[in-house]
Amino acid sequence: MDPGQSVKDPPFMRNVGLLLTYHCQASCAHCIIHAGPDRHEEVSLEDARDWIEQIAAYRDGYIYVLSLTGGEPFSNLKLLRAVMKIAAENKLLISVVTNGFWATSQGKAKRLLQSLPGICFISISTDLYHQKFIPFDRVKNAIRAARECGIPFYVSLVTDNKEDPDYQRVYQEIMELVEDPEQIRTGIIFPVGRAAEMRGDMNYSLCSEPCPEVCQASSSPCIFPDGRVYGCIGPLIDLHEHQPLYLGSLKEHPVAEIFDAAETNPILHALRLWGPARVLSWLREAGVGDHLPTAFVSGDICQTCHAMLSDPAVREWLHTLEQDTEFRRKVAYGRLFHLEETGMLEVGRY
Q1: Most CB atoms within 10 A, among 20, 87, 254, 280?
Q2: C-alpha distance from residue 96 to each of 66, 118, 119 (Å)
Q3: pTM metric for this prediction
Q4: Cβ(266)–Cβ(328) under 8 Å?
Q5: Number of other residues whose CB lies within 10 A of the CB of residue 212
């Protein structure tokens, strides 16, 4: 399997995220985790070593990518280097998410990346929100340096509306720097996380039907500095522990126990298989309609999921559903048929 491709779109739980720090040079208005220059919480090296060793040992090397994110992982180079060293010692490939603040020149950016030879993939974030803090020239430098170093990359953008002229301008500027449109990924934001504070200033479009896409983000669980593990690092984390994609805490349970439970989590895999729109239809059929959203952000799968799972009555119904033997069997065989994944059958013995 090609390492670059596997980092980009990994099968379930072959890629695990580790949020190194909440510190960031930017305090973007859309940030889900409220990262910024005044946030200093970060993972301890002791915890990082323990968790990475457990990750590497899980199912005899089943996981092959550790994705380092934040905040801004490059904020603390000493910590970043130490964690990368531990990951390399445990034979894990490493991807890193960054805003590129460190790329003050193309030459300096190249030298920094060359000093971190373990990076096999890099995701560079930029958009109107980031550019209030990080000059776009630094993003250009980071992109060019990654290309010169032979590091596969993509650029992450967010906007509240893809028709926005400023978003389209940024998109075209990025298009001039990449070789393939697939190297650009765009997310639609809505009032969640820090973006809740700019609810009245957002320009997203609403429609009456939910986004029909399936969820790919929930294939890669993410560990937070305090040990919390989420099946998705998207807007659902704003619901904290009160949602089915909160997988547990490494302060209370070992990696293997939490990941084995994720392997048989039927709601998580239903979202991967059929998406929140299908789950929403089940809820309607079950008579939970009074608790369901009726307006949806166009083209945004995350908003559908967040709006649906924000209601305690919906979560309670889903909790009941996940105990249903026939539903669990349907999900297990759905994974086998559609995704060629046998993990739920092996661990769950269906």
Answers
A1: 20
A2: 9, 10, 7
A3: 0.93
A4: yes
A5: 12
Which of 180, 204, 228 is a domain's end point? 204
Q: What does the longest C-alpha to C-alpha distance in the chain come to?
A: 61
**Residues 291, 310: Cα–Cα separation, whole Å:** 10
Q: Is residue 324 part of a domain?
A: yes
Same domain? For 142 and 270 the reply is no
Neighbours of 46 (CB within 10 A): 8
| Residue 37 resides in a domain | yes
Structural domains in the chain (count):
2
Q: How many CB atoms lie within 10 A of CB 214?
A: 18
Question: What sign does the dihedral 319-323-325-328 (CA atoms) show?
Answer: positive
SS3 303: helix
Determine, yes or no, domain membership for 239.
Answer: no
State pLDDT tens for residues 31-47.
999 999 999 999 999 99
Q: Which two tokens stand for residue 4?
A: 């670059």
Spatial separation of the C-alpha atoms in residues 99 and 92, rounded to whole Å: 23
Q: In angstroms, rounded to a whole number, what is the distance separating the alpha carbons of residues 154 and 181? A: 9
Sign (positive or negative) of CA dihedral 308, 313, 315, 321: negative
Helices vs. strands in the chain: H and E counts, helices first: 12, 11
* pLDDT tens digits, 297-340: 998 999 999 999 999 999 999 999 999 999 999 999 999 999 99
- Interhelix angle 255-263/45-57, rounded to 10 degrees, is 50
Per the structure, the complete domain to which residue 329 belongs is given by: 266-348
| Residue 241 belongs to some domain of the structure | no
168-175's contacts with Cβ under 8 Å and 24+ in sequence apart are 170/126, 170/127, 170/128, 170/131, 170/136, 173/136, 174/126
- Say which CATH number the domain at 189 has: 3.20.20.70
What is the distance between the alpha carbons of residues 311 and 200, in angstroms, rounded to a whole number?
22
> Are the C-beta atoms of residues 20 and 225 closer than 8 Å to each other?
yes
